[in-house]
Protein backbone atom coordinates (compact mmCIF):
# COMPACT_ATOMS: atom_id res chain seq x y z
CA UNK A 1 0.00 0.00 0.00
CA UNK A 2 2.80 2.38 0.96
CA UNK A 3 4.55 1.59 -2.33
CA UNK A 4 1.45 2.45 -4.38
CA UNK A 5 0.99 5.68 -2.39
CA UNK A 6 4.59 6.68 -3.07
CA UNK A 7 4.27 5.71 -6.72
CA UNK A 8 1.21 7.95 -7.14
CA UNK A 9 3.09 10.82 -5.49
CA UNK A 10 6.09 10.21 -7.75
CA UNK A 11 3.89 10.35 -10.86
CA UNK A 12 2.31 13.59 -9.63
CA UNK A 13 5.77 15.03 -8.94
CA UNK A 14 6.89 14.19 -12.48
CA UNK A 15 3.76 15.80 -13.93
CA UNK A 16 4.41 18.95 -11.91
CA UNK A 17 8.06 19.02 -13.01
CA UNK A 18 6.84 18.76 -16.61
CA UNK A 19 4.53 21.74 -16.05
CA UNK A 20 7.30 23.77 -14.40
CA UNK A 21 9.66 23.35 -17.33
CA UNK A 22 7.32 23.11 -20.32
CA UNK A 23 4.09 24.92 -19.38
CA UNK A 24 4.80 27.29 -16.49
CA UNK A 25 1.83 29.43 -17.51
CA UNK A 26 -0.48 26.98 -15.71
CA UNK A 27 1.31 27.92 -12.50
CA UNK A 28 0.76 31.63 -13.23
CA UNK A 29 -2.93 30.97 -13.77
CA UNK A 30 -3.09 29.07 -10.50
CA UNK A 31 -1.41 32.00 -8.74
CA UNK A 32 -3.99 34.42 -10.04
CA UNK A 33 -6.64 32.61 -7.98
CA UNK A 34 -4.65 33.38 -4.85
CA UNK A 35 -4.31 37.10 -5.56
CA UNK A 36 -7.39 38.32 -7.40
CA UNK A 37 -7.60 41.99 -8.23
CA UNK A 38 -9.88 43.40 -5.57
CA UNK A 39 -8.97 47.02 -6.10
CA UNK A 40 -11.40 47.47 -8.95
CA UNK A 41 -8.87 47.69 -11.78
CA UNK A 42 -7.17 50.71 -13.26
CA UNK A 43 -10.19 52.99 -13.50
CA UNK A 44 -9.83 54.21 -9.91
CA UNK A 45 -6.39 55.58 -10.74
CA UNK A 46 -7.24 57.25 -14.02
CA UNK A 47 -7.64 60.82 -12.74
CA UNK A 48 -4.49 60.69 -10.63
CA UNK A 49 -2.53 59.29 -13.55
CA UNK A 50 -3.88 61.90 -15.92
CA UNK A 51 -2.93 64.63 -13.47
CA UNK A 52 0.65 63.33 -13.22
CA UNK A 53 1.01 63.09 -16.99
CA UNK A 54 -0.32 66.62 -17.51
CA UNK A 55 2.02 67.99 -14.86
CA UNK A 56 5.01 66.30 -16.53
CA UNK A 57 3.84 67.53 -19.91
CA UNK A 58 3.59 71.08 -18.63
CA UNK A 59 6.96 70.92 -16.90
CA UNK A 60 8.56 69.47 -20.00
CA UNK A 61 7.16 72.18 -22.29
CA UNK A 62 8.10 74.95 -19.91
CA UNK A 63 11.60 73.61 -19.45
CA UNK A 64 12.46 72.95 -23.06
CA UNK A 65 10.12 75.23 -25.01
CA UNK A 66 11.55 74.08 -28.30
CA UNK A 67 9.43 71.66 -30.23
CA UNK A 68 9.90 68.09 -29.13
CA UNK A 69 8.96 65.24 -31.41
CA UNK A 70 5.95 63.58 -29.88
CA UNK A 71 5.39 59.93 -30.59
CA UNK A 72 3.04 57.98 -28.37
CA UNK A 73 1.88 55.63 -31.12
CA UNK A 74 4.93 53.37 -31.14
CA UNK A 75 4.01 51.05 -28.29
CA UNK A 76 3.11 47.40 -27.81
CA UNK A 77 0.24 46.70 -25.44
CA UNK A 78 0.83 43.80 -23.06
CA UNK A 79 -0.90 42.10 -20.15
CA UNK A 80 0.78 41.31 -16.85
CA UNK A 81 1.19 37.52 -16.45
CA UNK A 82 2.79 37.33 -13.03
CA UNK A 83 4.85 39.19 -10.46
CA UNK A 84 8.13 38.41 -8.77
CA UNK A 85 7.00 36.78 -5.53
CA UNK A 86 9.77 37.90 -3.17
CA UNK A 87 11.33 41.11 -1.88
CA UNK A 88 14.71 41.01 -3.59
CA UNK A 89 13.59 42.42 -6.93
CA UNK A 90 10.58 44.21 -8.30
CA UNK A 91 9.81 42.66 -11.65
CA UNK A 92 6.68 41.72 -13.53
CA UNK A 93 6.24 39.30 -16.40
CA UNK A 94 4.20 40.37 -19.43
CA UNK A 95 2.64 38.28 -22.16
CA UNK A 96 4.60 39.37 -25.24
CA UNK A 97 8.26 38.80 -26.03
CA UNK A 98 10.83 38.29 -28.75
CA UNK A 99 8.29 36.86 -31.19
CA UNK A 100 6.29 40.10 -31.04
CA UNK A 101 9.35 42.29 -31.49
CA UNK A 102 9.98 43.28 -27.87
CA UNK A 103 13.60 44.28 -27.27
CA UNK A 104 15.68 44.49 -24.10
CA UNK A 105 15.94 47.91 -22.41
CA UNK A 106 12.77 49.49 -23.83
CA UNK A 107 10.64 51.75 -21.64
CA UNK A 108 7.44 50.41 -20.11
CA UNK A 109 4.45 52.65 -19.43
CA UNK A 110 1.29 52.36 -17.38
CA UNK A 111 -1.37 54.91 -18.21
CA UNK A 112 1.29 57.10 -19.83
CA UNK A 113 3.65 57.00 -16.86
CA UNK A 114 7.08 55.34 -17.08
CA UNK A 115 7.02 52.40 -14.67
CA UNK A 116 10.14 50.49 -15.71
CA UNK A 117 12.09 48.94 -18.53
CA UNK A 118 12.27 45.62 -20.33
CA UNK A 119 14.89 43.61 -18.49
CA UNK A 120 14.82 40.13 -20.00
CA UNK A 121 13.10 38.94 -23.15
CA UNK A 122 11.77 35.41 -23.72
CA UNK A 123 10.07 34.08 -26.87
CA UNK A 124 6.51 34.69 -25.69
CA UNK A 125 7.07 36.79 -22.57
CA UNK A 126 9.24 39.57 -21.21
CA UNK A 127 10.35 40.58 -17.76
CA UNK A 128 9.95 44.23 -16.72
CA UNK A 129 12.23 45.77 -14.11
CA UNK A 130 10.06 48.35 -12.39
CA UNK A 131 11.05 51.67 -10.85
CA UNK A 132 10.68 49.98 -7.44
CA UNK A 133 13.61 47.67 -8.15
CA UNK A 134 16.89 48.56 -6.41
CA UNK A 135 18.80 48.25 -9.68
CA UNK A 136 16.68 50.70 -11.68
CA UNK A 137 18.00 54.19 -12.34
CA UNK A 138 17.53 56.79 -15.03
CA UNK A 139 18.32 60.43 -15.68
CA UNK A 140 15.41 62.78 -15.12
CA UNK A 141 14.45 66.45 -15.02
CA UNK A 142 12.37 67.94 -12.26
CA UNK A 143 9.82 70.73 -12.27
CA UNK A 144 9.17 73.65 -14.62
CA UNK A 145 12.82 74.78 -14.55
CA UNK A 146 14.01 71.35 -15.63
CA UNK A 147 16.52 70.67 -12.84
CA UNK A 148 18.64 67.70 -13.85
CA UNK A 149 18.81 64.76 -11.45
CA UNK A 150 19.02 61.00 -11.18
CA UNK A 151 16.05 58.78 -10.38
CA UNK A 152 17.14 55.86 -8.18
CA UNK A 153 14.76 52.92 -7.86
CA UNK A 154 14.12 50.89 -4.74
CA UNK A 155 11.51 50.06 -2.16
CA UNK A 156 11.33 53.81 -1.57
CA UNK A 157 12.59 55.37 -4.81
CA UNK A 158 14.44 58.68 -4.65
CA UNK A 159 15.49 61.48 -6.92
CA UNK A 160 19.11 62.21 -6.10
CA UNK A 161 21.89 64.54 -7.31
CA UNK A 162 19.54 67.52 -7.67
CA UNK A 163 21.81 70.60 -7.87
CA UNK A 164 21.85 72.47 -4.58
CA UNK A 165 20.73 75.74 -6.20
CA UNK A 166 17.96 74.20 -8.31
CA UNK A 167 14.46 75.45 -7.59
CA UNK A 168 12.51 72.31 -6.77
CA UNK A 169 9.41 72.02 -4.64
CA UNK A 170 7.03 69.34 -3.45
CA UNK A 171 4.55 68.40 -6.18
CA UNK A 172 6.94 69.13 -9.07
CA UNK A 173 6.75 66.63 -11.90
CA UNK A 174 9.60 64.20 -12.49
CA UNK A 175 10.10 63.19 -16.12
CA UNK A 176 12.58 61.00 -17.90
CA UNK A 177 15.26 62.49 -20.15
CA UNK A 178 17.20 59.28 -20.69
CA UNK A 179 18.03 58.48 -24.32
CA UNK A 180 16.79 54.94 -23.60
CA UNK A 181 13.13 56.04 -23.50
CA UNK A 182 10.93 58.48 -25.38
CA UNK A 183 11.70 61.99 -24.11
CA UNK A 184 9.64 63.51 -21.33
CA UNK A 185 7.77 60.54 -19.91
CA UNK A 186 6.24 61.27 -16.50
CA UNK A 187 7.57 59.15 -13.62
CA UNK A 188 5.99 60.75 -10.57
CA UNK A 189 6.03 63.84 -8.37
CA UNK A 190 8.49 65.23 -5.86
CA UNK A 191 7.41 64.48 -2.31
CA UNK A 192 9.79 65.50 0.52
CA UNK A 193 13.05 67.29 -0.28
CA UNK A 194 16.20 67.29 1.84
CA UNK A 195 19.93 67.82 1.46
CA UNK A 196 22.14 64.82 0.69
CA UNK A 197 24.46 63.48 3.38
CA UNK A 198 27.45 65.36 1.95
CA UNK A 199 25.37 68.60 1.65
CA UNK A 200 26.44 68.97 -2.01
CA UNK A 201 23.09 68.09 -3.57
CA UNK A 202 19.42 67.89 -2.78
CA UNK A 203 17.46 64.66 -2.88
CA UNK A 204 13.78 63.89 -2.69
CA UNK A 205 11.34 61.08 -2.12
CA UNK A 206 8.86 60.36 -4.88
CA UNK A 207 5.07 60.26 -4.96
CA UNK A 208 3.62 57.95 -7.60
CA UNK A 209 0.26 58.47 -9.29
CA UNK A 210 -0.57 54.75 -9.34
CA UNK A 211 -0.57 51.66 -7.17
CA UNK A 212 2.05 49.29 -8.62
CA UNK A 213 0.20 46.28 -7.24
CA UNK A 214 -2.87 46.75 -9.44
CA UNK A 215 -1.12 47.10 -12.78
CA UNK A 216 -2.66 44.68 -15.28
CA UNK A 217 -1.99 46.26 -18.70
CA UNK A 218 1.14 48.09 -19.82
CA UNK A 219 2.64 49.65 -22.94
CA UNK A 220 6.13 48.79 -24.18
CA UNK A 221 8.03 51.31 -26.25
CA UNK A 222 8.92 49.99 -29.72
CA UNK A 223 12.05 52.17 -30.05
CA UNK B 1 -3.83 9.94 2.05
CA UNK B 2 -2.32 10.46 5.46
CA UNK B 3 -3.79 13.08 7.77
CA UNK B 4 -0.40 14.79 8.12
CA UNK B 5 -0.08 15.14 4.36
CA UNK B 6 -3.63 16.44 3.90
CA UNK B 7 -3.08 19.06 6.60
CA UNK B 8 0.26 20.03 5.03
CA UNK B 9 -1.39 20.45 1.63
CA UNK B 10 -3.99 22.79 3.13
CA UNK B 11 -1.23 24.73 4.88
CA UNK B 12 0.63 25.13 1.58
CA UNK B 13 -2.50 26.60 0.01
CA UNK B 14 -2.84 28.91 3.00
CA UNK B 15 0.82 29.94 2.75
CA UNK B 16 0.40 30.67 -0.96
CA UNK B 17 -2.69 32.78 -0.35
CA UNK B 18 -0.97 34.69 2.46
CA UNK B 19 2.19 35.31 0.43
CA UNK B 20 0.40 36.68 -2.62
CA UNK B 21 -2.20 38.67 -0.73
CA UNK B 22 0.24 40.36 1.65
CA UNK B 23 2.59 41.04 -1.27
CA UNK B 24 -0.16 42.58 -3.29
CA UNK B 25 -1.69 44.61 -0.48
CA UNK B 26 1.42 45.82 1.36
CA UNK B 27 4.17 45.46 -1.26
CA UNK B 28 6.11 43.38 1.30
CA UNK B 29 6.53 39.81 0.10
CA UNK B 30 6.84 37.43 3.02
CA UNK B 31 8.28 34.02 2.22
CA UNK B 32 5.42 32.00 3.71
CA UNK B 33 5.73 29.28 1.06
CA UNK B 34 9.47 28.91 1.64
CA UNK B 35 8.90 28.77 5.39
CA UNK B 36 6.25 26.09 4.80
CA UNK B 37 8.70 24.07 2.65
CA UNK B 38 11.20 23.99 5.55
CA UNK B 39 8.45 22.81 7.92
CA UNK B 40 7.40 20.13 5.40
CA UNK B 41 11.04 18.96 5.13
CA UNK B 42 11.15 18.46 8.91
CA UNK B 43 7.73 16.84 9.24
CA UNK B 44 6.87 14.63 6.26
CA UNK B 45 8.03 11.48 4.47
CA UNK B 46 10.29 11.99 1.48
CA UNK B 47 7.75 11.61 -1.34
CA UNK B 48 5.08 13.66 0.43
CA UNK B 49 7.62 16.39 1.09
CA UNK B 50 8.95 16.24 -2.46
CA UNK B 51 5.43 16.53 -3.91
CA UNK B 52 4.63 19.59 -1.79
CA UNK B 53 8.01 21.15 -2.56
CA UNK B 54 7.45 20.66 -6.30
CA UNK B 55 3.97 22.13 -5.98
CA UNK B 56 5.47 25.11 -4.13
CA UNK B 57 7.96 25.68 -6.96
CA UNK B 58 5.20 25.31 -9.54
CA UNK B 59 3.23 28.06 -7.81
CA UNK B 60 6.17 30.34 -6.99
CA UNK B 61 7.94 30.18 -10.35
CA UNK B 62 6.97 33.41 -12.04
CA UNK B 63 8.78 33.26 -15.38
CA UNK B 64 9.54 30.75 -18.16
CA UNK B 65 12.91 29.80 -16.67
CA UNK B 66 13.81 28.91 -13.09
CA UNK B 67 15.62 31.85 -11.55
CA UNK B 68 18.39 31.56 -8.98
CA UNK B 69 16.05 32.36 -6.08
CA UNK B 70 13.45 29.76 -7.06
CA UNK B 71 16.22 27.19 -7.48
CA UNK B 72 17.44 27.99 -3.97
CA UNK B 73 13.89 27.75 -2.62
CA UNK B 74 13.88 24.22 -4.05
CA UNK B 75 17.35 23.20 -2.89
CA UNK B 76 17.45 24.54 0.69
CA UNK B 77 14.45 22.51 1.96
CA UNK B 78 15.96 19.42 0.30
CA UNK B 79 19.20 20.03 2.20
CA UNK B 80 17.15 20.45 5.38
CA UNK B 81 15.38 17.14 4.70
CA UNK B 82 18.66 15.22 4.46
CA UNK B 83 20.26 17.04 7.40
CA UNK B 84 17.36 16.71 9.82
CA UNK B 85 18.46 13.39 11.31
CA UNK B 86 21.75 14.98 12.36
CA UNK B 87 20.14 17.89 14.19
CA UNK B 88 20.45 17.52 17.96
CA UNK B 89 17.62 19.76 19.22
CA UNK B 90 13.88 19.35 19.59
CA UNK B 91 11.84 19.50 16.38
CA UNK B 92 10.25 22.90 17.10
CA UNK B 93 13.66 24.45 17.85
CA UNK B 94 15.16 22.92 14.69
CA UNK B 95 12.24 24.37 12.80
CA UNK B 96 12.72 27.92 14.12
CA UNK B 97 16.49 27.85 13.63
CA UNK B 98 16.30 26.43 10.13
CA UNK B 99 13.61 28.84 8.94
CA UNK B 100 15.78 31.71 10.21
CA UNK B 101 19.04 30.36 8.77
CA UNK B 102 17.52 29.52 5.38
CA UNK B 103 15.85 32.94 5.11
CA UNK B 104 19.10 34.67 6.01
CA UNK B 105 21.01 32.52 3.51
CA UNK B 106 18.47 33.31 0.79
CA UNK B 107 18.77 37.07 1.37
CA UNK B 108 22.56 37.02 1.58
CA UNK B 109 23.03 34.94 -1.56
CA UNK B 110 20.36 36.49 -3.76
CA UNK B 111 20.48 40.16 -2.82
CA UNK B 112 23.14 41.14 -0.26
CA UNK B 113 22.78 44.82 -1.23
CA UNK B 114 19.05 44.65 -0.62
CA UNK B 115 19.64 42.87 2.69
CA UNK B 116 22.04 45.50 4.02
CA UNK B 117 20.02 48.40 2.63
CA UNK B 118 16.62 47.18 3.85
CA UNK B 119 17.26 45.30 7.08
CA UNK B 120 13.81 46.28 8.32
CA UNK B 121 12.14 44.42 5.47
CA UNK B 122 14.25 41.33 6.18
CA UNK B 123 13.28 41.45 9.85
CA UNK B 124 9.58 41.77 9.05
CA UNK B 125 9.84 38.92 6.55
CA UNK B 126 11.74 36.62 8.89
CA UNK B 127 9.52 37.46 11.87
CA UNK B 128 6.31 36.64 9.98
CA UNK B 129 7.91 33.52 8.44
CA UNK B 130 9.00 32.27 11.87
CA UNK B 131 5.52 32.73 13.31
CA UNK B 132 3.90 31.00 10.34
CA UNK B 133 6.54 28.22 10.44
CA UNK B 134 6.02 27.64 14.16
CA UNK B 135 2.23 27.44 13.80
CA UNK B 136 2.44 25.19 10.71
CA UNK B 137 4.92 22.89 12.50
CA UNK B 138 2.63 22.63 15.50
CA UNK B 139 -0.44 21.88 13.37
CA UNK B 140 1.26 19.27 11.14
CA UNK B 141 2.87 17.46 14.06
CA UNK B 142 -0.15 17.58 16.36
Keywords summarizing the entry:
heterodimer; A: 223 residues; alpha+beta; six-stranded antiparallel barrel; 3 helices; 12 strands; elongated; B: 142 residues; mainly alpha; 0% strand
Topology:
The complex is a heterodimer of chains A (about 220) and B (about 140).
Chain A: H1 2-22, H2 25-34, H3 46-64, E1 75-83, E2 91-94, E3 107-110, E4 113-121, E5 126-130, E6 137-142, E7 147-152, E8 158-163, E9 173-176, E10 186-195, E11 201-207, E12 217-221
Antiparallel strand pairs in A: 1-2, 1-12, 2-5, 3-4, 3-12, 4-5, 6-7, 6-9, 7-8, 8-11, 9-10, 10-11
Chain B: H1 3-26, H2 32-43, H3 46-60, H4 68-83, H5 91-110, H6 112-117, H7 119-140
Report on the structure:
The complex is a heterodimer of chains A (223) and B (142). Chain A has 223 residues and is an alpha+beta fold. Chain A has three helices and twelve strands. Chain A has a six-stranded antiparallel barrel with strand order 1-2-5-4-3-12. Residues 38-43 and 64-71 of chain A have low confidence and may be disordered. With 142 residues, chain B is mostly helical. Chain B is globular and about 40 Å long.
User: What is the average of the pLDDT values of chain A?
Assistant: 84
Main beta sheet of chain B: strand number and arrangement? none
Poorly predicted regions of chain B are none
Oligomeric state of the chains in view? heterodimer
The stretches of 5 or more residues of chain A where confidence is low (pLDDT under 50) are: 38-43, 64-71
